[in-house]
Design a protein that fits this description.
Helix content: 25-40%
Strand order of the largest sheet: 5-6-7-8
Radius of gyration: 15 Å
Oligomer: single chain
Distance between the termini: 47 Å
Shape: globular
Structural class: alpha+beta
C-alpha cells in the first residue's frame, strides 16, 4: 500500500544526501585552497569526540587521501544510506564509480590526484540515471 510513497521518499532522501555530500566536499576543498589550507574530520564515535584538522597537501596522493578522509568524516557523523539505514552512506574506493548494479543510495568518493578532483557517484534511485559529479579547485 505504501511502497510507492516509501520508495519515492528514499529516492528523494538519497538525492538530497548526494547534494549534501557534494556541497561539504566542495566546502572542504574551498577551505584548502582559499582558506586555512586545512580540512576537518570529525571523530564522533570515539570515547572523546573531537575534530582533527589535516593539511591539504598530505603527500603524493592528496586527492585520494582527501576522499578517504571525507568518507571517514561521514561515517563518524553517522550518515546512513537512506535505502539501507544499517549501512554507511559513503565509501572511498579507488577507481570505483557507481553503476546501476551498485547498491541503491551508496555514494562513492573517488579522489584522482593526477587530475586534481574528486568524483562523487551514486545510484540514488532505480527510476533515475546514476548521478556522477566532479569537484575540483
Amino acid at each position: 500500500m505504501y511502497n510507492g510513497y516509501i520508495e519515492s521518499s528514499k529516492c528523494k532522501s538519497a538525492n538530497e544526501q548526494f547534494n549534501r555530500v557534494r556541497d561539504q566536499i566542495q566546502q572542504q576543498l574551498f577551505n584548502c585552497f582559499f582558506g586555512s589550507g586545512k580540512y576537518s574530520v570529525a571523530y564522533n564515535k570515539t570515547r572523546r569526540p573531537h575534530v582533527n584538522f589535516y593539511a591539504c597537501s598530505s603527500g603524493p596522493r592528496d586527492y585520494e587521501y582527501f576522499a578517504r578522509m571525507m568518507a571517514e568524516d561521514f561515517y563518524q557523523k553517522d550518515w546512513k544510506n537512506p535505502h539501507a539505514v544499517s549501512n554507511n552512506c559513503c565509501f572511498s574506493r579507488r577507481g570505483k564509480i557507481a553503476t546501476k548494479a551498485s547498491g541503491l543510495g551508496t555514494i562513492y568518493l573517488n579522489g584522482i590526484h593526477s587530475q586534481k578532483k574528486v568524483i562523487i557517484s551514486s545510484n540514488t534511485c532505480d527510476a533515475e540515471p546514476v548521478r556522477v559529479t566532479e569537484v575540483s579547485f
